[in-house]
Amino acid sequence: MGRRHLEPEDIVRYEEDGPKVVLLDQRRLPDQAVELECSTVPELVTAIRELAIRGAPAIGVAAAYGLALARARGEDLDAAASALAAARPTAVNLAWALAEMRDEPTPGHARRLHAEEVERCRAMAAHAAELFVPGTRALTHCNAGGLATGGYGSAVGALRAAWERGLLAHVWVDETRPLLQGSRLTAWELEAAGIPNAVIADSAAASLMAAGEVDCVVTGADRIAANGDTANKIGTYALAVLAAHHEVPFYVVAPTSTIDSATPTGAEIPIEERSGDELTTRFPARNPAFDVTPASLITAIVTEHGVRESVSP
Amino acid sequence: MGRRHLEPEDIVRYEEDGPKVVLLDQRRLPDQAVELECSTVPELVTAIRELAIRGAPAIGVAAAYGLALARARGEDLDAAASALAAARPTAVNLAWALAEMRDEPTPGHARRLHAEEVERCRAMAAHAAELFVPGTRALTHCNAGGLATGGYGSAVGALRAAWERGLLAHVWVDETRPLLQGSRLTAWELEAAGIPNAVIADSAAASLMAAGEVDCVVTGADRIAANGDTANKIGTYALAVLAAHHEVPFYVVAPTSTIDSATPTGAEIPIEERSGDELTTRFPARNPAFDVTPASLITAIVTEHGVRESVSP
Questions:
Q1: Strands (DSSP E) found in A234-275
Q2: Residue A1 has what pLDDT?
Q3: What are phi and psi of A231, to 5 degrees?
Q4: Same domain, B108 and B161
Q5: Is the pLDDT at B4 greater than 70, yes or no?
Q6: Mean pLDDT of the B8-26 span
Q7: How many CA atoms are closer than 13 Å to the CA of B228, on its beta-carbon side?
Q8: Which residues of B touch A202 (CB under 8 A)?
Q9: Structural domain for A76, as ranges
Q10: What is the pLDDT of residues B43-68, one digit of tens each?
């Protein structure tokens, strides 16, 4: 799978023969491309919680297939939906996908949701590409790629679209501690797309900005509150503060399924705290998985509907 | 060696029997406390370059012992000094220690320089502790501890002094990618000192500041230019920008041997670029080891002579 683009069904799919949900185990990338088969909802919940599949839109799609799996197995749909929704707290896409599935919990409907999610990525990438000028050197954090969205990618989709239009010169890839989604997944996707890139320590972004080597920052999102405050991978907020300090535009690219109009501001978004063992097993550690970037630090949010520039600083 | 303080001679020392320079191999901490014996200057240069001993004051002390070793072996002192000075480019302490040694390249003189360096740490720690108020929750980056200075520590020395005076409640320890000097070395030293602490991802400092959980940032320095611009471990500059944004005081604690009056501003400080393999061996990477924090973002620089508050923002 090394150098070709992943198809949506490579990332997550439903197989009637089983039945089962099959997903590419992202924990083992880039060294190994191994599929994980989930024949029960608890197996899928574990796969989501332990990050075999991750990224807000992708876990939404996986949960949609999970509800189809529960129905095919004759299980209680409410219990299945509750377990899937609780697998991870920060992304709103889990709840969104489950709500979308309730009236028609079939494989066909889940596949339509999946295809629509990928189409939204392509649409938002086309909009986001309009923000790039020739020679742009972009910086991205974590993985908002095809792996995170079930295909094509949100922030990485924007980079792909800009690259195809001849507007992108280089991508700085934050390695994204502790789980290295940048240096394991985003660098792998960019290599497959032939886009010049270099991994950096998360803490090196500031001095690259100071040296004038970063023209924009582009990230995905796990949940966007009604006021535009955006939860995303830990470190995103730091980048937004640094970008503002250096007058570098900061763009969020995410499908509308990530927008949670029921959450007024970022203060109400639950932030997942993960085990400190992801950082060190030797000493005490604190490991929030996400942070919240206030809308005032975001230059523009790009969805499948277009570019929404920030209302006010 | 787990829970006791390191003595200066545990970190680096000269043994006439050999002769040799013996140092604690910091690459293998905290899992193993193993000593490395350098019987020649090239062996010591390699040990410094490959970070068996690191930290600006500590490598200055090691180089001082190295010059004594060269003399004991009847080697050319100019060649030895050149090789030691070139081992790492950013810290000025190498050049400082070698200049101090030229007139009297003896083990006894090197030991006096070592003891004076540790005394400077104790003096600056006492000054720095005056900046703390009861209940302070401090954040530190990399390792500016006893391991980095040949004993007691600069920034970590300040934390120790504040702890002993009952002023310190907690320390957030940036893990400090790529080589994890925070989660391997600083957490180990703080544990030995009994100081409550938790390791965090470097990228998590911003959201802790936003949550009001950081009362000050304290770091060491590898070189301080005449105007107060300060080179230190990559990520320090990001912390300084973030601290300013959140109105958190940012303190640099370093001996005067770190001040380079011959370098007018941070722009003239050479920044070491290390191998990208420290980040990832699978993809291209860029790995600057240090960055420069402008004096305007530093609330105060503390040396053995006292607290020098920043002149102007």
A1: 250-253, 259-260
A2: 42
A3: -90, 135
A4: no
A5: no
A6: 97
A7: 19
A8: 177, 201-203, 235
A9: 8-119
A10: 999 999 999 999 999 999 999 999 99
- The span from the CA of A63 to the CA of A38, in Å, is 12
Pairing of strands A35-38, A136-140: unpaired
CA distance B203 to A234: 6
Residues B184 and B96 in one domain: no
> What gap in Å lies between CA A305 and CA B180, rounded to an integer?
43
Q: Tell me whether residue B313 is in a domain.
A: no
Per-residue pLDDT tens for B66-77?
999 999 999 999
Whole-number Å distance between alpha carbons of A70 and A52:
20
What span, in angstroms and rounded, lies between the C-alpha atoms of A69 and A74?
A: 9
Question: Which of A119, A137, A158 represents a domain boundary (last residue)?
Answer: A119
CB A229 within 8 A of CB A295: yes
Q: Tell me, what's the pLDDT at B122? A: 97
Instruction: List CB contacts (< 8 A) between B285 and chain A.
Output: 183, 198-200
- Closest to A177 (Cβ–Cβ): which among B198, B203, B282? B203
Touching check for B30 and chain A: CB below 8 Å? yes
Whether A2 is covered by a domain: the verdict is no
**Half-sphere CA count of A125, side-chain side, radius 13 A:** 26
pTM here is 0.96
pLDDT level of residue B115 (50, 70, 90 thresholds): very high
Cα separation, A218 vs A214, whole angstroms = 11
Q: Which is catalytic among the residues A10, A222, A229, A291?
A: A222
SS3 B251: strand
Say if residues A189 and A3 touch (Cβ distance below 8 Å).
no
Task: For residue A20, give the amino acid letter.
Answer: K
Structure tokens at A140: 């991205």
Q: Any catalytic annotation for residue A222?
A: yes
Q: What is the mean pLDDT of chain A?
A: 95
Q: How far apart are CA B216 and CA B308, in angstroms?
A: 16
Cβ atoms B140, B159 nearer than 8 A: yes
Q: What is the ipTM of this complex?
A: 0.95
